[in-house]
Each structure stands twice: as structure tokens, then as C-alpha cells.
Prior knowledge:
Layout: H1 9-14, E1 46-47, E2 54-55, E3 63-67, H2 68-74, H3 79-82, E4 89-93, E5 99-103, E6 122-126, E7 129-130, E8 145-152, H4 156-159, E9 166-172, E10 181-191, E11 196-209, E12 213-224, E13 229-231, E14 237-238, E15 244-258, E16 261-274, E17 279-284, E18 303-305, E19 311-326, E20 330-348, H5 350-359, H6 364-367, E21 372-390, E22 396-414, H7 420-426, H8 431-435, E23 448-467, E24 472-492, E25 499-520, E26 525-536, E27 539-540, H9 551-557, E28 562-563, E29 566-579, E30 584-603, E31 610-630, E32 635-648, E33 653-656, E34 659-662, E35 678-690, E36 693-704, E37 720-722, E38 734-736, E39 744-755, E40 758-765, E41 773-779, E42 785-790, E43 795-803
Parallel strand pairs: 6-9, 13-18
Antiparallel strand pairs: 1-2, 3-8, 4-5, 6-7, 8-9, 10-11, 10-43, 11-12, 12-15, 13-14, 15-16, 16-19, 17-42, 19-20, 20-21, 21-22, 22-23, 23-24, 24-25, 25-26, 26-29, 27-28, 29-30, 30-31, 31-32, 32-35, 33-34, 35-36, 36-39, 37-38, 39-40, 40-43, 41-42
Amino acid sequence: MKVRPGQSILTAALCSASIFAFAPGVNAQDAEQAPTGRSMVPDVIVVTARKREETVRDVPFSLNVQTQAAIRATGSTDIESLANSIAGLTIQNLGPGQSQIALRGISAGQIVRDQPQVKEQVGVYLDESAISLSLFTPDIDLFDLNRVETLRGPQGTLFGSGSLAGTIRYITNQPNLDDYEAEAEAEINTIDDGGTGGHLKGMVNFPIVEDKLGLRIVGYRTNFGGYIDAYDANYNLKKDVNDGTRQGIRASLTYEPTIDISITPRILYQEIDYDGFNREEHFHILANELTTTRPTLQLGAYQQFLLLDEKFKDEFFLSDVSIEWDTPFATINAISSYTARDVLVSRDASALTGSVSYDIGMADAGVMLPSNLQDTTKVNLFTQEVRLTSNGDGPFQWVAGVYYMNLNRKYKQYLPTPGWDDGARAAGFTDAALYGNYAVSPIDSPYFSLVPYTLKQTALFGEATYDFNDRLSLTAGLRYYDFEEERTLTFDGFFATETLLEPGETSSDGFSPRILLSYDVSDDWTLNAQASKGFRLGGINDPLNAALCSAEDLQTFGGRESFDDEEKWNYEVGAKGVMMGGRANFSGALFYAKIEGLQATIDAGSCSSRIVFNVPEAHTMGGEFDFSALATENLEFTVSASYADAQLDSTVTTTSGGTTTIIAGIEDGARLPTAPQFEAALNATYTWYLDNMDVFLTGTLQHVGDRYTQFVDETPNYGTFTLRGFGGVAPGSTFTLDPKLPSYELVNLRLGVIKDNWEVVAYANNVFSEKALLSYDRERGGVARLSYRVNTPRTIGVNFRMSY
């Protein structure tokens, strides 16, 4: 049987779990062969995790590599679906384009759209360009990627701020200067009791001047079916309100005027447009089962109550150019990158505004006014990196460089609520109370904020490796960083604390070192150890909405204008090895990390504000492993698992009236939120070799342990709320919703046929339609609305791919 390069399902799953290159004792030519003629060992995988090419086994720390073949084998289309196969990587889905990434259990609470001051804990890169932006890290389509590298543990030395817990790198396929290539993919799917979706994707690559100039263009459009239903003001049910689209184009041009010089400019444009959010509501102040003066409404599974349609839009543009020049002394790389983002989150805030309107004594008609909270984020980011990398074969290898970043971000939020001003006047409020001294807020918008800011950073970095002999090597690295952040705060409206063009600034500088040791105990096994430091930059908090705060909340959460850097020291040992004559691979690590100044994200209770506290100390400890094996010529499997015991080691308190209380669940021993302690995944593929084609069946099982969304969720009885009396709700009535997110298991199946240059796959994702609760969502501390973010029910589809 003829084996077609790049089409082996056997290789795909093996490559999906931190697979490294052939062990020194396993020669590709001498490797055991299956009767079909397939190699019984995986292909060599080359990565650039340390900004130079090397095999996975040569990288002396824990990482996972998802190759293009692995991405296709699992049917992954974005980082959330890909994370199902990566130990220790948690993606918390907070709605379209709003996913929060955590590694090894390190998280400090859910980040939400109106916290532009919060930086990321996991850095995300597209090739050499940084694209992470706190909550709004772009949801990049995975079509025509070469691989995705997940680097576990602090990567601050080479990747800087935001890589405190680790780094994710999307590595694209570069233009082929010699051969014409083309690929097309089409899919259609349907969601259980939901809508239909599908996609069209294509790639074309052609050499313009052979060996000199080549162009690669990728285009895609995906339609996402909805599965959330919403009742409107008349209690009519609208189906599938959270459908949406993602479309984009990526074009790269490589020019090699000489054998030593390569110049690659690229552009990427992607647009995401969703009509709603994956929110399952359980209590809504304006429509619930406890009302007596309004029609009752019992919200069911995958349902919401909306007075207004919702919207999410994200326009992402990236332009970069990478220049590589091989000299006799070193390889010089220069990467210039410009990013522009335009994000709109438009949501129905009628519950939020209505709860405040009820509290200030407005009539029922005023409480029921439709209210639209609009968040807009506009970003312009420029980065420049220049580095030199040794290119000799000697025992001493090194990389050194300089990095510059200039970020301009403009965040705006306002709350158009037609009729609200008249309703407030009827409740006895004057125009001075409504508009204050500045009158910046538009009419009928009880809240308005405008926060432009700039963030500048410069850094020098370097890392060197010395091979003492064929088995022992030592790596040492250091990064110096200096950053400045400036913001101008404008807040106005009845809900806000009046602030007009108030300047704020913060700055920081420091060093981020790491040292790594690698030892080949045999031709098949390598041990490594490291100590490394990561950091996350601090920032400036928004002022509280003092008009909404209770006296207790104002004292507890007030006076915290800024927060400091978060720092982490990580210590770990690991092992990588091959077994079964090279047919099985293992990679594992044990780690302990001490975190200082953890930036805890806090919902400031009745204030309807969010601020960041520095918790003095926290830690995470645990381990992860990836194991893959070609059990027979037909059966292959991968297993990955991680355990992270991540806890606070400090308590933060407040004192009022002589009584000291713990703030928002920030207590010694509390678990770090959003990430589970334990998660695991199993991927198995069985292949039949029929005449001139391969038939394969792939099954994946993912287990995710229980989690909390915020620190406060761990507080005893936190999930019980005393309700407002709107709609005739009896005084003192309560509503309980458990904030603990239970563990869940997801099963996916794929049955496919590969013949020559085409492939057809039928699949079922979430076979048993398990409803996973992804986060606990509360509006105004829970008194306005309580809900969960939920995953997609069972989805059945067919995928067709053809390549040339």
C-alpha cells in the first residue's frame, strides 16, 4: 500500500501529545515497520520555543505541540477545542471572542469586558507577533496552521510580560517558493435542538519566481449555529439567538533575494460577528417565577429573557514583516508588527439598570425600560523586536535581543436607556443629580465612561546554552524590562463617580531570569530541571460607581486606585523519553510555583464595579504528563492529564464598626478560580487499511474537574441572594444558584475516509449532549440576574477536504 506524506492518521494522534523527535537510539531508517510499510515511530517535530529551531526533546522544559495533522485529526477549529488535548491548559468560554486562558491552575478570577487595565497571564503569539489582549485575545481560526506550541511555565525571559503562566504560539505555514499548493475544506453541521452551521476554507500557494518569491493566501468563513433561546418583553420565544460568523483572510509573501536573506511581509484580517451570548439564565429581576404583579416566567435550559437583542463584533487586523539574515557570525531577525482591533460588546443591561431604578424608587414602567450597555475597545499596537541567534555547531549557543512595544487603547462604555431621565425626575431627582457638574454623559444614559491609555515597554533579553558534554547542558537567561502606563479617566452619569480627564500613571521595571539544566540519562531518556521567573504588569483601577455602593461596600472596595506587578517564581523537574522501540513517547513534569502580588479580580458588590487587589502570596503545585503510543499497526492513542493544587497563602480583610471580615473570599487556603484541579484527555484512533484508501475511527474523551469563577464563590452560602421586591416579589424572598461549577466529561467521535488527495469525515461532538457550566455569571452582585455560561450541545456534521 502506498503511504501518502502528510496524510497518515497514525502520525497525527502521536504528534498531538508533546511528541518529540526520534530518540538518539532510534534511527528512522532502522525503525520498526508495520506490515503496511508505515513507519512505527512518529515524525521528527521541530519547534521554535526558544526562538531557535530544535526538536521537542531538546527543549529543556514542558511543552505541548499540536501539529497540523493533530489539529485535523481532532477536528479542532480554535484554541478552545484544541485545548481538549493539552494537559494543564484551561480555556474559560465567556462568550464569543471572550475566552480566558489559564495554565497550570494559575488564575486570579474572571476578567470581564470592562477591565481594560488587566493584563493577561498567558501570552499568545501568531508566529513572532504578540496578539494577546487580556480577555479579548483573538479567536484565530486554525486552518492551515503548521502547529500550535503551548509552553508551560513562566516564559518571561524570552516573551516578557503576560507570559507569567506560559505562552501559546500559533505557527503558520510559510509560503512555498518551489511548488504550487492548494487546499479546500467544506463542512455542514447541526446542533441538537439548535441551529445549523458550517464553513468554507481555502488555501492557495504559488511560487511567483522559483526559489526567490512565493505567495500563500488563506481565506475562510464559518457560520456558527445558535443554541440559546430568548423570551422577549411579550414572552415570545426567539430561537437560537447566539448564532454568528467568523471570516478572515491571511496572506504571506516570502522573498529570498539570496540564500542568506529572507523577507516575509504578511497581513491578517478577521471579523467575528455574533448576535448573542452563551448565557443560560436562572433568575432575572424583570421576569421570574416569584413575581405576583407581573406574569411569571420559569426560565429553562439554554434560555434567556431579553428586552433588547445583543451583539458582539470584533475586527482584527495584523500587519507584520519578518526579516531573517544569516551571517557568518549569527542569524539576525527583525520583526515589526502593527495590530488594530475594534471590539463591540453590546448587551441587554435592562436587569442591571432596572435593579438600580427599583432601588431609587422609580415607577414600574421606569424599571422595565430597555437598557443597552455598549462597550467599545479600540486598540493600536506596534511592536519591534531585533535579535541575534548563534548559528554555529559548537557547544555554546545563544540568543540576544531588544524589544519595544507601544500600545494605545481607547475604552468607552455608555448605557443608552430611552426614557430613563424622565423616570428619574418623576422619582424626585433633579437634573443636577442626573447629569452632575460635567454633563459629559449623553441624555438618557445613566452611565458613561471614556478611558484612553497608552502602555509603552522596552526590554533587553538574552539566553545562552552550554553543552558540557554529549549529555549535560546548562541554559541561563535574563530579561530586563521597563514599562510606563498612562490613563485619562472620564466617568459621568447618575451611576458613576464624576471624574473628568483625571490623569493616572504607573510604571515598573525589573529583571526576569531563568536557569535550566538538561541531562540525557540514556539514549532514550532526558531529565531536566529549572528555576524561572515570570511577571504580569500592574495597572490603574477604575473609580467605583460610588452612587450605587452601599456604605459597607464603599469602605471595603474604596481607596484602591492602582495595583502592583504580579510575580511568580517557578521550580520544576521533568522527564522526556521513548519506549517500545520508539513507538511510545512520554513527557512529564512536576512543578511548584510561588506567586507574589496575585492580581485578584474582584466584583465590588453593590457598586456594579470591578477592581483588582494584590494578594500578597499564593502558590500552585502539581504535575502533568503526556503519553502517546502506537499500540499496533492499527491502533494508536494519546493520554494527557494534569493536576494543579493552586491556593491562596494570604487573607485580605476589612474592618468596619470594629468587626473584621474577609474581602470577597480572599482567604488563606482558597482555591484559585476558573481552572480545575484535575483534567485529563484520551484520544484513540483505529485505522483500517483498505484498497487504495484509509478508514479511521477517532474517539476523544475529556474530563474537566470542578471550578469556581471568582474567589467569593467559595464563601459558604454565597449562592443565596436576597431579592429585590420588584414585580410583587415577597419581602425577604431568596434565590439560590450554586456557584460551584461541577466537573464534566465530553466525548467526540470522528469516522473518516482518506483516499489520494481527498478526505471525508462524519463527526459527532459532545456525543451525549453534556451541558458543561463554564462560568458563573452575575449581574450587579447577583441581585439583577444570575446565570451560567454554557457549552454547545451535541453537534453532528460532515467535513470534506481536498488538497493539491
